[in-house]
């Protein structure tokens, strides 16, 4: 089986991420050898042929412990209320540190800098010679006491503050952003807001939640309620911890039952984060609004059998029209899993693909070569 290619202007009839293909992919004259940013073909593990199995096993599959020299630092991201986020940093030795590509990694909903996929890609990026910053969203990674506020998908400014902080301290000249799921939306949103602003040079995302409303509603589908319950259990615990720390801010009496992510966002996130409703939050925080302004080499990696990531047709069209974005859509892979039919650590196909992408961007920048035009592809 070989990847079938589309030019970056094709694709209006593509099925949305998370749905089965409705027709065989068409082929253009492009070839993988002319598109060095594209990963190789994804072949799912034979015991994990569908999106639910990929997602569940990928969440629990054990990995080797992360053994890297680590510096933990709480970085201020909002001087109006003193909010800080906890970052775990792995720096290459001096004097090469400033010149190395720095990868800032951002987890998904109810994840942390210790999420398995974050630790896995951190180890790969470090081994490839990059500085690595494992960033926690506000409150995550046991950091509730560092901010009176909540995290949400629109806080792209926090990512920007982390970049500015470390770039200023160490003189970093090249920073790449890597985001998973909700973190993917946040880094794409910042990329759209920043354009080609230095030191940002690349973005890579795995199953980004670009259309927030579509994803929230997909989570409430009967087949996906197990995922929604999992997220809600963590979110309820977190808001109770925040209420204990800041009882004058978070008053939970009278809120009533919360049975969906949309209800949580409407009753908790919206009123405490400056939104009028869940719909207002989903619209204003979605990277879909600014995806056409992304102006650095960007990888969007997703799976057609992702249980709950959805793309609206107009969002897909804007992605495919952006020459800076390489859009890769595998038939299989689930949500942020992509467990391959490969031995050992190579089972984690998406992590390897992201690191290869970042290496290709760095190599092109170092050689002064022009970045080739982006493309979209469906992998069989």
Beta-strand proportion: 15-25%
Q: With helices defined by DSSP (H or I, 4 residues minimum), what is the helix count? A: 10
In helices, the fraction of residues equals 25-40%
The H/E string reads EHEEEHEHEHEHHHHEHEHE
Q: So, CATH architecture of the largest domain?
A: 3-Layer(aba) Sandwich
Number of strands: 10
- Trace the largest sheet across and list its strands: 1-10-9-8-7-6-4-5-3-2
CATH superfamily membership of the largest domain:
Alpha/Beta hydrolase fold, catalytic domain
CATH topology of the largest domain: Rossmann fold
Q: Which structural class matches the secondary elements?
A: alpha/beta
User: How many separate structural domains?
Assistant: 2
Shape: globular
Question: Keyphrases for this structure?
Answer:
alpha/beta; disordered N terminus; 10 strands; single chain; Rossmann fold; 34% helix; globular; 380 residues; 10 helices
């Amino acid at each position: 089986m070989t990847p079938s290619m589309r030019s970056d202007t094709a694709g209006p009839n593509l099925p949305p991420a998370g749905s089965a293909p409705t027709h065989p992919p068409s082929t253009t004259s492009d070839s993988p050898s002319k598109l060095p940013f594209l990963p190789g073909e994804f072949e799912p593990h034979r015991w994990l042929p569908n999106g639910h199995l990929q997602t569940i096993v990928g969440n629990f599959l054990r990995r080797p412990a992360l053994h890297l020299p680590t510096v933990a630092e709480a970085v201020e991201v909002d001087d109006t209320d003193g909010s800080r986020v906890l970052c775990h940093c792995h720096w290459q030795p001096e004097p090469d540190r400033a010149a190395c590509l720095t990868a800032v990694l951002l987890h998904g909903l109810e994840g942390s800098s210790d999420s398995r996929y974050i630790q896995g890609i951190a180890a790969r990026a470090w081994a490839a010679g990059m500085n690595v910053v494992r960033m926690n969203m506000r409150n995550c990674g046991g950091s509730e006491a560092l901010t009176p506020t909540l995290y949400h998908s629109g806080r792209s400014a926090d990512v920007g503050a982390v970049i500015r902080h470390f770039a200023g301290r160490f003189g970093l000249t090249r920073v790449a952003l890597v985001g998973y799921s909700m973190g993917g939306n946040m880094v794409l949103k910042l990329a759209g807001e920043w354009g080609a602003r230095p030191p940002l040079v690349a973005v890579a995302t795995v199953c980004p939640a670009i259309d927030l409303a579509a994803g929230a509603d997909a989570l409430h589908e009967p087949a996906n309620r197990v995922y929604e319950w999992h997220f809600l259990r963590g979110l309820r615990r977190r808001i109770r911890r925040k209420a204990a720390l800041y009882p004058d801010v978070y008053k939970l009496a009278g809120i009533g039952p919360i049975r969906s992510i949309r209800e949580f966002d409407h009753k908790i996130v919206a009123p405490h984060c400056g939104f009028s409703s869940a719909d207002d939050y989903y619209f204003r925080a979605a990277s879909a609004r600014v995806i056409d302004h992304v102006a650095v080499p960007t990888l969007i990696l997703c799976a057609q059998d992702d249980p709950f990531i959805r793309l609206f047709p107009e969002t897909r069209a804007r992605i495919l029209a952006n020459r800076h974005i390489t859009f890769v859509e595998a038939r299989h892979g689930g949500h942020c899993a992509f467990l391959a039919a490969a031995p050992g650590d190579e089972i984690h196909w998406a992590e390897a693909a992201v690191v290869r992408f970042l290496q290709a961007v760095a190599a092109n920048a170092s050689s002064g070569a022009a970045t080739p035009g982006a493309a979209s592809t469906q992998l069989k």
